[in-house]
Amino acid sequence: MLFKSSKVNEFRLWGLALTMGGLLIMIIGMAGIVFDWGVIGQVIAAIFLVLGLISVMVSMGIYFWAGMLSTSAVVIECPECAKPTKMIGKTDRCMFCKTILTLDPELANTNKPVAKE
């Protein structure tokens, strides 16, 4: 449960990872020009800059998609922490306390889990 989060936060995490990865790829690619590797360095820099640009553009699309999902998400109050959280789909997690939430009564689990010995 430590690494689980709400769907909106997951999309934002992937967008951030692609942004940072794309910028890192661009920085690595610039080594061909900075260290003066000649024509092959320029080719390497061009390839890495294009790959980094593609990664940043994909992350921009993911951020846009997450924003559009966030505007149409249902805002509910978490029963555990009492904070308002956005929910996408039938089940999601609280953005703050990571509690599993659902609006579908068939998927709701009202029983507390029993500890196995």
UniProtKB/TrEMBL annotation:
The chain crosses the membrane at residues 12-33, 39-66. Keywords: Cell membrane, Membrane, Transmembrane, Transmembrane helix. The keyword Cell membrane applies. InterPro entries: UPF0295. NCBIfam families: PRK02935.1. This is YgzB family protein.
